[in-house]
Amino acid sequence: MAHIKWNANLKLILSDVDETVADLYTAATFEMCKELEKVLAHRTVIFFITGQSIKSVQWRITDKIKPELRKKILIGHCSGAEVWGFDRRGQINAKPFYSLYKNILFEKQKKRWREIVNQIIKEFKLQPYPAEPIADFKTKVGNNPLAIMREDRGPQITLEIINGYDLTPGQEKELEINIPHTHGNLDLRIPIIERIDQLLQESNLPISPRLAGVFAIDLALKGVSKTTAIKYILDNEEVLKAVGLTKKYLKPENIEVWGDKFSVKRGGTDRHMSEALAKQVRSITFREENPEEFLEGYHIVVWDGQKHLHEGLLEFLSSR
């Protein structure tokens, strides 16, 4: 039996999406959505904050939530580049609460950004495919390390290097690319990121390439992170009021973080949610991670149930 218990005093939950609420490029299960509805019906706000696009969060999660409960949901998509909410009818608002994408980049810069991505694909001889569930992708391409998934989310472009983040020495030799060992792995993402960063700097674009998830590269706006979006919301009484919260009553014991990548050593981006909050706020990782790799002094715990990732969260929710 798990020792981590449900916090009945929660008013705000900050949650990752991929592998926390739903599998990659897959809709949340019926059971998960029903459990989330119970949380929302208890007048608790859920702020989904993810590298995925707003449309992805909608079709995978919020479209499956009862319309009358969606007003208690916030979505920070593309690593916090924009934050959206819902009206009382359950429809997405006409405009975001804030948007850095529209304020930072000119159209010429957006075009050049995409030209650089295409250049990288040619230089590394990558073979891009549309985003789809990982199992379907692997059935299609096998173990080809140059086959990738590319998704342009507007404020963020993501390259999923699914078969290239842990190469064998033989594969590295075949690719004829010098790949440094990173945390014991031959990770094709490292030389790709280094080259992308060089081209972005030469074009003076405010874009930052980042390792993300297990095998992704996120190209996102500089200065944008999950921390940025959370701090904006918590400091904005108008946004808090829109979802039925007030800053005055948001104590550390009323907030919780759900994610699956908190390791500093491995570049886990969910730790940025914790960094936006008081250190005593509980953060739960549903991945089997090493606590020694977490932010020092923060209350980050590893879910100790029988299941992990999105199945672990469902187990946690069902245990209430």
UniProtKB/TrEMBL annotation:
UniProt xrefs under SUPFAM superfamilies: HAD-like
InterPro entries (alphabetical): HAD-like_sf, HAD_sf
Protein name: Sucrose phosphatase-like domain-containing protein
Organism: Candidatus Uhrbacteria bacterium RIFCSPLOWO2_02_FULL_49_11
The organism's taxonomic lineage, starting at the top: Bacteria, Candidatus Uhriibacteriota
